[in-house]
Design brief:
The chain is of the alpha+beta class. It has two domains: 63-165, Sandwich (Tumour Suppressor Smad4), CATH 2.60.200; 181-294, no CATH class. The chain is built from two helices and 17 strands. It has helices at residues 2-55, 166-170; strands spanning 64-69, 73-78, 85-86, 97-102, 105-110, 117-118, 121-122, 126-130, 140-142, 145-152, 155-162, 184-201, 207-220, 223-232, 235-240, 254-259, 266-270. The strands form three sheets. A six-stranded antiparallel beta sheet has the order 1-11-10-9-6-7, with no helix packed on it. A six-stranded antiparallel beta sheet has the order 16-15-14-13-12-17, with no helix packed on it. It has a five-stranded mixed beta sheet with strand order 3-2-4-5-8, with no helix packed on it. 27% of the residues are buried.
C-alpha cells in the first residue's frame, strides 16, 4: 500500500512537472512572439521616420515648386510675369536666361549678372544641361531654388524645387494605419516565361511600356491575389489600388517596394510600407497610376493614409 502511494505521488509530481514545463514553454513562445512583434513595429516606425525626413528635405516632394514644359527652340525664364517660364515671384531675376531645346539636347544660357551654378560651378554664359547620355541630371541652383531637366515620353520639362516653399514650411506630418504584422505577407513571384512589358499610364495621360519580371502572388484571409511588379534595381516596385482609395487613402492608389525572392523563391510583401504617391503633395509630379490588373478588390488597412 505504501509503495502504491509513493508511486501515485511520484506520477503526480511528474505530471505536474510536465504541465509546468509545457506552461513555461508556451510562456516563452508568447514572450518571443511579443518581442518579435515589438521589434517589427519599431523597424516600421523607423522606416516611416525616414520617409517623413525625405519628404521634408530641400529637394523632397514638399519643396517641388514648378514643372515647366519646354518647346523646341528658345524658352526664356525668370520671375517676370508673362514670360514663357515663370519661376516663383522674388526667387530669381526677372529675366534670368533661356533654355534651348534642340532635338534631345537642352542648353542653358544665363543672362549677365545672374549667378546660376551648374553642378556647383558658376555658369559663365552657356552650358549643356541635358543629354540622353547623362547618368545623373545636371543640377542648376540659384538662391533657394534648384532645378533639373527631365524627360517624360518624348517631352522635356524643367522641374523646380524651392527650399522656401510654403508646402515644406507648413507640413504637419503623415497619417497612417497602426502597424500590423499580419499585413506583412509571405509571397512568391510568378515569373514571366518570356520578357514581358506592361502599359503604365501617368497622371499626364502618357503611357509607356515597362518591363515586368512577373506577378507577386500572396494570400489574404484564405484568398489568393496577385500584383504585377516592376523591377527597380535589387527590389520590386508595386503600384496598386484597393478599396480604401478615395476615403482613407489617396484616390489614385499607393506604392511600395519589396525584396526580390530569395533562392527558395520566397519573399514578403509588406503593406505597412505602402506609401502615398508624390502627386498627393504637389501638382508638379508625374506619378504613374496603377494598371488595371493591380486593382485589389479588398481594403488594405495598412500603410499611409491621406487627407489630400
Amino acid at each position: 500500500m505504501k509503495k502504491l502511494l509513493i508511486t501515485a505521488a511520484l506520477a503526480g509530481f511528474i505530471l505536474s512537472s510536465c504541465s509546468q514545463t509545457q506552461t513555461d514553454i508556451e510562456a516563452q513562445r508568447m514572450e518571443s512572439a511579443t518581442e518579435a512583434d515589438s521589434s517589427y513595429v519599431a523597424s516600421i516606425d523607423q522606416w516611416h521616420a525616414t520617409r517623413v525626413e525625405n519628404l521634408q528635405k530641400e529637394d523632397g516632394w514638399l519643396a517641388l515648386a514648378g514643372l515647366y514644359w519646354l518647346e523646341p527652340g528658345s524658352s526664356s525664364f525668370g520671375s517676370a510675369k508673362g514670360g514663357k517660364i515663370v519661376f516663383p515671384e522674388g526667387t530669381i531675376a526677372q529675366q534670368a536666361g533661356q533654355f534651348i531645346l534642340e532635338g534631345d539636347v537642352v542648353k542653358l544660357q544665363v543672362n549677365q549678372g545672374v549667378a546660376i551654378t551648374l553642378n556647383g560651378e558658376p555658369v559663365q554664359q552657356e552650358a549643356v544641361v541635358y543629354t540622353a547620355e547623362m547618368e545623373q541630371p545636371a543640377e542648376m541652383r540659384y538662391g533657394s531654388l534648384k532645378w533639373v531637366v527631365i524627360k517624360r515620353g518624348d517631352k522635356f520639362a524643367v522641374r523646380l524645387w524651392d527650399a522656401e516653399s510654403e508646402a515644406r514650411k507648413s507640413f504637419a506630418g503623415l497619417e497612417r494605419y497602426p502597424v500590423q504584422p499580419e499585413w506583412r505577407l509571405e509571397a512568391r513571384l510568378e515569373q514571366n516565361p518570356l520578357p514581358k512589358q506592361i502599359p503604365i499610364t501617368n497622371v499626364l495621360g502618357q503611357t509607356s511600356q515597362e518591363p515586368s519580371p512577373g506577378a507577386v502572388v500572396f494570400t489574404v484571409e484564405g484568398q489568393q491575389y496577385s500584383l504585377d511588379a516592376l523591377e527597380e534595381g535589387d527590389e520590386l516596385f508595386i503600384i496598386f489600388a484597393d478599396k480604401t482609395n478615395g476615403t482613407d487613402t489617396y484616390g489614385s492608389g499607393r506604392y511600395l517596394y519589396m525584396p526580390k525572392p530569395d533562392a527558395s523563391g520566397k519573399t514578403y510583401i509588406d503593406f505597412n510600407k505602402a506609401y502615398t504617391p508624390p502627386c498627393a503633395f504637389t501638382g508638379y509630379a508625374t506619378c504613374p497610376l496603377p494598371p488595371r490588373q493591380n486593382f485589389l478588390p479588398i481594403s488594405v488597412t495598412a500603410g499611409e493614409k491621406s487627407k489630400h
